[in-house]
Amino acid sequence: MNTSNTINRREVLGGAATLAGGLAAPGSLLANTTDKRIQGKADHVISIWLGGGMGQVDTFDPKRKGDPKAKKPGSYYDSIETAVPGVQVCEHLKNLAPLMDQVTAVRTVHHEMIDEHAAATNRMHTGRPISGTVTYPSLGSLITHDRGAADEGAPPYVLIGYPNITRGPGFLGAQHGFLYLTNTSEGPAGLSHPDDITPARQSRREGFLAELKKHANPTRDSRLINYDAAIEQSLKLSGPAFNSAFQLDREPASLRNLYGGEFGQRCLLSRRLVERGVRFIEVSHNLNFLNGAGWDVHNEGILNQHGLIQELDTAVATLITDLQNKRLLDKTLIVITTEFGRPPEFDSNGGRGHQGTAFSCVLAGGGLKHRGAWGETDEISKRIVSNPVGVPDFFATACAAVGVDYRRNLYDGDRPVPVTDRGQPIAELFG
Prior knowledge:
Alkaline Phosphatase, subunit A
């Protein structure tokens, strides 16, 4: 057989998938094969997750003032000017307002998942709807699968918050999963030895494990191979060199105070993890909240929503400034996402429902050409007027910023899976 004429099965499947995508979405075939790749120069991502559904009309896309009692749709708060002429934000984002020339509020993100938090959370972590046949990888796993850790002494992906499958590696396998912790006063539980396990005892255990492996039969079972890789990585990371990143008391008290409470300390820890070489950090704002309801402000939950917004404002503004002072801001993309937005109308008790047709996600730093805001919604932030950004497009923008090729395929076995479901980056944000 002439090997030059042999067709690789993956190439056939990949071509068929690309063709099918082109038929389903006109222009996507051309975009994925001939368009010049957009590539940024960032090395790290700090992804801030606001569980519950941040209301864009009350934060980064303010409109006319509404009135819950009169059932007049609109913003709950007044708006203020920012460093970018013509771009306003909520009055409770007073620390971020002067920094908006380093920020882009993408005001026209949209998807169809609005009635179920778990499905929407999955959508905003994996970029795709839930599938009955494929467990898709999260954005963190997509990026770290491509680029690995920025330093061999660090894990690629750290989650500061509660773990679940939505944040995980999906079909990429356990070796592309996350290390996690839920409390900044303690390091990751998986890296902490029990008090009775001395260094000598740990060394003996590792020796026994190595001896068992030497005499074990080779395996091709991917689950066992991935498990072994996870054990090897955890042993490497359990020493004092990496664990010192979690010692926040080494930071000046004045800086810790600027960051604020536990959520702010998570943001501070994310900066320390960037310095240690972690590629992707998710910081989850899931602390039972000042208003008792989090960002899911139905009914009376909206009454103290301003406390959440102020907490976000304090921590993120300090993170931006801190990264800039350490000359890390251009190398670190900050991403703020949430499962959906909130409608401008008020419910019977003055709160808000869910809205996936138009909501805001935020980008900062990462060497992007920021403009304060991208995209436009109507006079009450109900409908997209210009520059819609689908979830795959938002994912493609984040991937492009850190040098991941958003056009290529991953493979679930022999099945090709486009990295970002054929999203296209917001080209105007790249120089």
